[in-house]
Write a structure and sequence with these properties.
With 180 residues, the chain is of the alpha/beta class. The protein has six helices and eight strands, in the order E-E-E-E-E-H-H-H-E-E-E-H-H-H. The protein folds into two domains: 64 residues, no CATH class; 104 residues, Metalloproteases ("zincins"), catalytic domain (Zincin-like, 2-Layer Sandwich), CATH 3.30.2010.10. Helix content is 42%, strand content 17%.
């Protein structure tokens, strides 16, 4: 989300248990917005706009992390790193998919503002270019997560069992990922 020269990169989580929106700011200024499952994305964006300056202030004063690349929102930054991200993701998909053997169509690198990855009903895999700035264990977690959506298009117990087959410590990695 951008307002003038200032921008906020945030991770949107949906929760069946959430009754209202919750915004949290983590070390390094990473912002996580937790929303009820049925809340419209337009409502989420509208709420974030009303809290823009509070979020910006909190994320600007959060203890610094070493990786400022995660906070960049510029198109130039995206274009500089897109090819590198595609190469890394394709290499890791091949390695991770050796176990599963799932078929997929296109792999794309995007400049998402709220997602690290997605899997479409057409079996296309999309990844945020900033994946290249994450630790290798989190890169693997995101890629395996999206690969498993090729078989289970939800976050059911069966989905997490599938993830655990190649990432047995996925709960630990998920916790690390959410604290970015």
């Amino acid at each position: 989300m951008q307002e003038g020269e200032r921008a906020i990169f945030y991770n949107l989580k949906r929760s069946a248990r959430a009754k209202q929106l919750r915004i949290s700011v983590h070390a390094g200024g990473a912002v996580v917005v937790t929303a009820p499952v049925r809340m419209r994305e337009s409502s989420v964006h509208r709420y974030i706009r009303t809290k823009f300056y509070w979020i910006y202030t909190k994320s600007s004063t959060a203890p610094a992390k070493n990786n400022e690349n995660l906070l960049s929102t510029s198109r130039v930054h995206f274009l500089q790193h897109k090819k590198e991200a595609l190469h890394l993701v394709q290499k890791k998909i091949i390695a991770c998919n050796t176990f599963y053997g799932f078929s997929y169509n296109t792999v794309r690198i995007k400049q998402h503002t709220t997602k690290w990855g997605s899997c479409s009903a057409k079996r296309n895999l999309n990844f945020n270019y900033k994946i290249i700035f994450l630790p290798e264990s989190l890169q693997e977690y995101i890629i395996v997560h999206e690969l498993c959506h090729l078989q289970e298009m939800n976050h059911s117990k069966d989905f997490w069992t599938l993830v655990a087959q190649t990432v047995p410590d996925y709960k630990k990695r998920k916790k690390q990922f959410l604290s970015l």
